Amino acid sequence: MHYLAAAISGEARVLLTLFIMLLAAKLMAELFERLRQPAVAGEILAGVIIGPSLLALAAPSEITDLLAEIGVIFLLFTVGLETKPAAIFKVGKRAAIVAVLGVVAPLLCGWLLMRAWGSSGIEALFVGTAMVATSVGITARVLSGMGLLDAPTARIILGAAVIDDILGLLILSMVSSMAAGSVNYLEILITAALAIGFTAFIALVGAPVVTRVAPRVEQLRSGEGIFIFGLVLCLGLSVAATYIGVAAIIGAFLAGMALAEGAEDAPKMHSQMSGVTEFLVPFFLVNIGMKLSLEVFRSPSVIMLCALVTLIAIATKLLGCGLGALNLGVRRAAQIGMGMVPRGEVGIIVAQIGLSLAVIGPEIYGVVLFMAVATTVIAPPFLKLLYANEAAAHDEIGPPDAGGIVTAKDLAKIA
Amino acid sequence: MHYLAAAISGEARVLLTLFIMLLAAKLMAELFERLRQPAVAGEILAGVIIGPSLLALAAPSEITDLLAEIGVIFLLFTVGLETKPAAIFKVGKRAAIVAVLGVVAPLLCGWLLMRAWGSSGIEALFVGTAMVATSVGITARVLSGMGLLDAPTARIILGAAVIDDILGLLILSMVSSMAAGSVNYLEILITAALAIGFTAFIALVGAPVVTRVAPRVEQLRSGEGIFIFGLVLCLGLSVAATYIGVAAIIGAFLAGMALAEGAEDAPKMHSQMSGVTEFLVPFFLVNIGMKLSLEVFRSPSVIMLCALVTLIAIATKLLGCGLGALNLGVRRAAQIGMGMVPRGEVGIIVAQIGLSLAVIGPEIYGVVLFMAVATTVIAPPFLKLLYANEAAAHDEIGPPDAGGIVTAKDLAKIA
């Protein structure tokens, strides 16, 4: 049946890849939970294991990238759903200080390190830029898994991640145009105005508008009104964010925040949304792991550079962001600093742009990729340790109530 | 920022396409619900409207195909979840008769029509084969939307669709090898044995095994145990089905059926699964609509052929399948016949194989595509009419309870 085989093999191979990714993610998550380690780290390592660098059972592709992107978009959307705008505004100033220090420190130290290593000025700047961008998805996943999204430091991390992304965009714009030989300040100004305007507009106007629209949506005939409305809003603002140049996840987070109050009485929506994220987030995590290339480890000097870049990437966020939150106490400052450590897919995207502009070579690209994956695997266990007290206190109050859903079991308990 | 623009545009364009597909689907679904028409037909028409043949806002691609495929896989999985194996076995003989008559009639009449039109023997056979394959996803969506998956005729349709798919596979194998010049009977025998063996094995052994495994899964630490187990089982059996040559949706349906008893006490799982399907099924429906090409309508004779092929495709399933169920009464026979009419993505896949083997020309390919989409849009309104009585009776008993979830509102009612 080779005619059929040819026709179906494309589809079958893609489905097989997805199956392997999901299975590996869930097995490693289970293993890590039993070892009392965060499932997130297990799922990223699952990607490393099944990916091209080890077993080569699956490889990242345009399709896994898209599923990963949709996964992290909905992850940030559900995080936004748990976040009232006022809670973020309240920590706004603190978040801004954390973000700025957390941008300056890695940019400066990354640049210095690469210059000392012998890189050209522009390559050093690009590596520094790749070290700026925090991927808040990983931290959000760890904290939501522990039921701690409402911790004060979690709010600061989320607010700082939004500001960090905008600052990262502007630095990337500037460095990219320097790489092309001339800096167009007007363009950068427009990018800045658009990014800040979009974020401020949605953050300020989004919630009141959505809260007014949501009850009408509930009356639509096509059922599941508020859930569908949430999906459309989330995708719509993610697309808008991407066109403006901000990461899609920032749009998704703002969409969730805008809907946070309107969806408060919609337990079914939270449960349905958790179905979407539980299915798609593993692709996001495994896909990051699959991108790790161990080919880069061909010479001891490169291995050394990987270690140094990763170490600096961790230290600069930990100390930079931590410094901005130091008056909250050392432990909270460390929570915030560690929460900003994962670079994940954002660092990978910056590295890809650098490679496509030919300002960083394939070797340094491999180093940045290693840093992006390594920071992402290393942070979750430390986050879990740093938040252990809060988690214990939280468990005493009672576990999170599964998205507000009252199940038949709860009913039985009441009766 | 054209460097950035280039880097982000691919991602942004894909997200934009998905956003347009979802928005169009939901707007048309709402419009059709208000007109008391089935939402399914609205969502397929949404695809026709935004697709290349009309507004050209979006086009089918490898990525939309994949999302569509995952969507229909999980749709059939949730249908399987509502279907106990015993209920299908009970109607097995009836379903087999319905399937066989519903395969013979379109194959024969399609072949005759195309021979009369002047096609070569092998082209006529391929068109007949494309007219054989029922896409049960559309009917399943309409019936589950009406809460009628447990109607006796729904069981017969589901059982017949499984048998129909296996027969369709065997005919496609045979016709494909005829197109290549020699029929390898041994290969076809192996295909038959594999397809039947796989289906029978999962149908018979799946449920007892899963029912024994499911309680252990519930005790896993990584949470959401039964939901994740369902996702993995669904994807795994879909992949297995594809490798054997049966449609992935058959594997997904069998996976759902195997889990039907094990998941009975898992209301949260049903709700989470409905989140996945509500998000992904629109891509399945819109993607079918987007595949319609109106380019084919360049000559009156082709328009005539489109009309004839579509008419024969509808009449042969309606009468063929209906004949097999006639002793249940005319209305029930008509329900079953109409339920088997949509050819959807299965017909499209057969046409694509024919095109890739160069046994059908691009013009006839366009005609078959039109038939596949047209049967899929036409059937739902008639299905809704034919099932109106059952739906009314069902509503008197009470609407479906949203997947068994007890919401805070229900609690309030009780109190």
Q: Termini separation of chain A (Å)?
A: 60 Å
Oligomer: homodimer
Helix/strand order of chain A: HHHHHHHHHHHHHHHHHH
Number of strands of chain A: 0
Low-confidence stretches of chain A: 398-415
Biggest interface, residues from each chain: A-B, 75 and 75 residues
Helix percentage of chain A: over 70%
Mean pLDDT over the full residue set of chain A: 85
Output the CATH topology of the largest domain in chain A. Na+/H+ antiporter like fold
Amount of beta strand of chain A: under 5%
The first-level CATH class of the largest domain in chain A is given as Mainly Alpha
Q: Count the helices of chain A. How many?
A: 18
Class of secondary structure makeup of chain A: mainly alpha
Any idea how many domains of chain A?
2
The CATH architecture term of the largest domain in chain A is Up-down Bundle
Query: Tell me about the biggest sheet of chain A?
Result: none
Shape of chain A: globular
Rg of chain A, nearest Å:
21 Å
How are the SSEs ordered, and which strands pair?
The structure is a homodimer of 415-residue chains.
Chain A: H1 2-34, H2 39-50, H3 62-81, H4 85-90, H5 92-117, H6 121-132, H7 136-145, H8 152-179, H9 185-218, H10 225-244, H11 248-259, H12 267-290, H13 300-324, H14 330-339, H15 344-356, H16 362-386, H17 388-397, H18 408-414
Helix pairs in contact in A: 1-2, 1-12, 2-12, 2-16, 3-7, 3-11, 3-12, 5-6, 5-8, 5-13, 6-8, 6-15, 7-16, 8-9, 8-14, 9-10, 9-11, 10-11, 13-14, 13-16, 14-16, 15-16
